[in-house]
Amino acid sequence: MNIYKKTTFAVFSMALLTSSLSGCLVKKPEKSNEAANDILNEKFYSSSLVIPVTINNKSYRFLVDTGASTTVINEGTAKEITQEVSYSTLHPFHKKIFSNVKTVHDKIDVENLKLLKPVKMFIGNEEVGDNEIWIAKDLSLLTQSSGTNIDGIIGIDTFRKFNWLVDNKKGRLTISRKSPPISTYSHCVAYEDAYGESPYFYLDYGNNNFIKMGIDTGNDGSDLGKDFIEHVRKQKGKITPIEYSFTAVEATGLIKIRQYIITGLTFNNHPVGEMIISENNNNQYFLGMNFLSRFNQYAFMPSKMLFCYNTNSLYKEHQYPIRHIGVRYYNEHLEIFYNDKKELDQYHLKDGDVIKSINGINYLPREIKKVREILSLTPKNKLTLIIERLGVKQKIVI
């Protein structure tokens, strides 16, 4: 059975509850770029790629999201910098495309799209001024999920204009005009793409089961269609359901997702080991940051249509979650939120509790994914929280 799925116009999907666990890889790369070719060299946190973008001499924070077909601007920011355009004025090509806008788990009606006239924006000193159309969306939930204020999303329309070099060991993203020599990396694989779509890889699931999966850097996790999950079950493959449903963010708002731990995927002859994936009914197949975080260094080179990387192993074993506590970034704090009351009652917690410290450590909002991981995986009776509820601090041991 060959699994070959085409996905179109996924916007973004960020987990509010789940965590992405980074791999531990080894090889140190050679110097891959001359400084003159670098557009931007930026620190990133918790695997999310967030970069400064300048519009009208003002700096904004944009999430780099290869799962987004086009640039997305937060509604409040959009009012400051540009104006809406009517769907009726679009070129017939764009009318056709925007009539079929999908997220990973849902579909967006064109009537609910706020289309924008693009304006010049700058990444570093590099101008991006030839995008065809932008979309305005309320990104407040994405801000809550990512632990930092998000003003917009860099979509694939901008992504494919540059080379993107990620060093997971150092937590640095380099954007370059010139692609690095492939000798910088120990492995390279060609990828596919198409207008408005993500780069695509093929993963092997054995017995000639090849899965075509898009790369979605705006997604904490990874996604498989329900049909493939059913196929794995029928073939008696190793797939373990995670008991609880999870709250996640998509362009359509908050959604509930089911997750599994799947074993047996292989990428470019590298066994992936265990990976947490989400199920969807929308025939969407995406690899997110819980896959890319396993590489030591990697680079997307659109001019060569190559993905190059350094790794000795992608293999990882996942610890089954011990508990499920949702966390969001709100009012400059990390707080417990988006949970079932019954789940929280057993821990004597409430939605809205502000997290002051965990096991004696104060975590910054940008470390939200690490906080989710700690809350999920710390053994029972080993998790000490200092929370603030209605202005009063409390100590809770879980």
Automatic annotation (TrEMBL):
Key word Iron-sulfur present: no
Swiss-Prot/TrEMBL GO biological process terms: proteolysis
UniProt keyword terms in alphabetical order: Hydrolase, Signal
Keyword Hydrolase belongs to the record: yes
GO terms, molecular function: aspartic-type endopeptidase activity
Domain of life: Bacteria
PROSITE patterns: ASP_PROT_RETROV, ASP_PROTEASE, PROKAR_LIPOPROTEIN
InterPro entries: Aspartic_peptidase_AS, Peptidase_A2_cat, Peptidase_aspartic_dom_sf, Retropepsin-like_bacterial
Domain Peptidase A2: 60-75
CDD domains attached to this UniProt entry: retropepsin_like_bacteria (cd05483)
Signal peptide annotation: 1-22
Protein name (record): Peptidase A2 domain-containing protein
Phylogenetic lineage: Bacteria, Pseudomonadati, Pseudomonadota, Gammaproteobacteria, Enterobacterales
